[in-house]
């Protein structure tokens, strides 16, 4: 039986002769990257557990979330990591370098067929060059830095083929937004997707990066695009050595094989709140905007900026509209300067920032205010992700066209005179609530339930990115769910010993550990869900925080605040109010081992 692309990469990095879906294996990690917001916790985990870095040549810091150090907590974390790096001889790509996942590709640090982990939930961007990339939390990263290896569950694979010819007005961002329209946020949850087709083979590196970077928003482990000859040549130039092309075997076995017709794809935008809430751009044309953003790991490449410049050349940003542009790396910034693109941006009235992630993770540029409507080339538009306003997602040409028009539009429909608008704003005040921590870890627990019947609760709803610099677990509980509509008072009402029951894809989104630890801080005993976001699941298991999945618990006839009993070892849930029980998925071996010893690093 042949191997899929992900199975071949993982086999090559494990001690097993062959791996198959569902296997839990140890894999060698070729490139291990900690960013500025996660880096400080990685270092603390190493120091607190008496661990050393096993191979500094494979270990890196990238300061890309806040590459100006404009936030004091970011600046403190960056300097803490700098001091550690100087002492240990670790390479830093500092605030002048750009986005870490792009840097490792462009400099040949990561090559086709390799393994990369980062404290970046979009590390699966490495699928653009046919490499394994995965975002992981602070404990995972510390373990990889110390051991060079990490455990991983081999995912099932789906073969996705695009048939037909790509329309001229369909950009890479439109392709991925059409995929989100087809699959939503959880239909591909936990799968490795291999991307094929005549038009896929033609994709440039920049286009591949755009598409692969949003695998996270589709719930996928990774979206792997087999490397073309051009990609191999690019990687060889970066690393200075010959690279063997890696492909899936012809007789590889896939869980599913799906075909879509790219000729039917339409220019799309994502409506505010969810990247998968996509719609034909024509249906939201002339929606008034206050600002536009071009950049991020999804659309900050040279081709993206050149396309935007072609729209902006000879035009001005609409009066009152703010256009923010951030290249993904310093090398791309310099190329834009050399080619006159920066001048086009400045002449149009745009603000151009230094390379980095910008609006994501409360970065240096791209946040919006209450009531502000933004059109953005980012990958996420969760409530609060890029600020307090509303964010539409689109391609760079559509963002540029909208910026000069004053409303959402396409390059072929820019008005002679820009739209006028009246700005508005709102203000909120946050409540700060203290919690307490439970430390005992029994195999059977009892508690009262909070039933949250909502799919795709993302990490910004659980623990908003404005708090991600908090490293003291005792401070985290007060912010649990304070960005989830209808549950903003959860931390005030929750009691130690409570159990949360929710729906599909709980914990979608970022790699932040705090989205797990905030519940530990409150004394929540366990979370039961139909499924979990891939990184969230790892973070919870590694933190020895009980999470369990179920297929159907309707037979329990649960009501809000019923008292239940959950057996982690046997996989049984009991409703103590009516004596009904159901079977759920029990802890797997690795989860139980980590749970019993109190965490991955214990």
Topology:
Elements: H1 5-12, E1 24-28, E2 31-35, H2 36-48, E3 59-62, H3 72-88, E4 91-93, H4 100-106, E5 115-118, E6 132-135, H5 138-147, E7 149-153, E8 157-163, H6 172-183, E9 192-196, H7 198-201, H8 205-212, E10 222-224, H9 229-239, E11 256-261, E12 268-270, E13 278-280, E14 291-295, H10 296-299, H11 302-312, E15 322-326, H12 330-338, H13 341-348, E16 351-352, E17 373-376, E18 390-393, H14 396-405, E19 444-451, H15 459-462, H16 490-493, E20 499-501, H17 514-522, E21 526-529, H18 534-542, E22 547-549, E23 563-567, E24 572-575, E25 580-583, H19 589-597
Parallel strand pairs: 2-3, 2-5, 3-4, 5-6, 8-9, 8-11, 9-10, 14-15, 14-17, 15-16, 17-18, 19-20, 20-21, 21-22
Antiparallel strand pairs: 1-7, 12-13, 19-23, 23-24, 24-25
Helix pairs in contact: 2-3, 2-5, 6-8, 11-13, 11-14
